[in-house]
Amino acid sequence: MNNLNWSGSDEPIFNIGAVARATGIPITTLHAWERRYGFPISMRSPGGHRLYSKALIQQLQLVKSRIDEGMQTRHAIKLIQNEFSKAVAQNIHPPDKFSQQSIPTIHIDPTNFMKALSRQDIQRADQILGELLAVYSPEELTLQVIGPVLNEIGENWAGDKTSITEEHFISNYLRHRLLMWMNTGPRPSSNAPIILACAPGEWHEGSLLMLGVLLRRQGWPLIYLGQNVNLKDMATFIQNIAPLAIVLVAMRSETAKEIMDWPKWIHQISGKPIMAYGGKAFNDDPSLIKKVPGIFLGSSIQDGVDKLNSLISVY
User: Fold this and answer.
1) Beta bridge partners of 246
2) Is residue 5, in this structure, part of any structural domain at all?
3) Which residues touch 107 (CB under 8 Å, ≥6 apart)?
4) What is the DSSP code string of 220-252?
5) pLDDT per residue over 49-71, tens digit each?
6) What is the reported pTM?
């Protein structure tokens, strides 16, 4: 048998639903193995949900492959655990190749969640979100539930289908959840932080918060500045931080124009950080991309995360 090729990360950030999809092992089976064999051993989130590391997911994938080859479950678990212990003892740490891409894309229907928020039924909305969190990761819910709901409530408000009060209620509810997920992510790496800020005059921070959640869940340290950030003040604030990157978000053409002269203020910051930007304004009017210095992150939140990861990896 080949030596165990473990991913090297023991940070428990994946819930049991993500593990089940990554390994093909049903949740009920994972529970049964934990009771019967003491494997896999999970950590617990503040809410009491099981959390698993990348390395443990790899062990489970190998256990399943041995079982599929005809080995008894008990023997497969013991074999892989022994191989893993040897790998750790020999300090075998290959590059981290584990990827969320190994988890099949699952469509999550946000309809009931949106209906609960539209009725101002916070208790039901909390219940639905809690049930989803037991199966899906905050990253999946950010992209497949929070994002669509933010987009729908924004379109409804723009089309006079909902009041500004209802829009504020739902947006603030989602904002608090995103901030919580961003602040309770895995232990950040020792890298310099990424600065996240809305353009001057920009008050719509939903996309920036979603980006923050996805980056923070990957372990990147963040400094979140939020809405309506004055570029001159920001430059003074982060002068001694030497950030790894600065990301500016603009949702309207008016605010996109406000960041065109960012080099006037930010060129003096130490460390020469990556300067990047994105937001709905650039999707609506691509001509703005040529007018803003720096790196355009793409047309979606996921594009932005992927682009930043690729930029930082070679920085």
Assistant:
1) 195, 275
2) no
3) 144
4) --EEEEESS--HHHHHHHTTTT--SEEEEE-SS
5) 788 888 888 889 889 988 887 88
6) 0.69
Half-sphere exposure of 277 (CA within 13 A, CB side): 29
206/312 same-domain check: yes
Whether 190 and 285 share a structural domain:
yes
Q: What are phi and psi for residue 206, nearest 5 degrees?
A: -55, -50
Residue 49 covered by a domain = yes
Q: Show the tokens assigned to 42.
A: 């999970």
What is the rounded CA–CA span in Å between residue 127 and residue 70? 41
Residue 193 is classified by DSSP as P
Two tokens, residue 150 = 């933010």
Q: Are 84 and 4 in contact (CB under 8 A)?
A: yes
Which of 157, 184, 211 is the endpoint of a domain? Answer: 184
pLDDT at 97 over 50: no
In whole angstroms, give the CA distance from residue 101 to residue 139: 13
Query: Which three-class secondary structure state does DSSP give residue 116?
Result: helix
Q: Is residue 211 within 8 Å of residue 249, measured between CB atoms?
A: yes
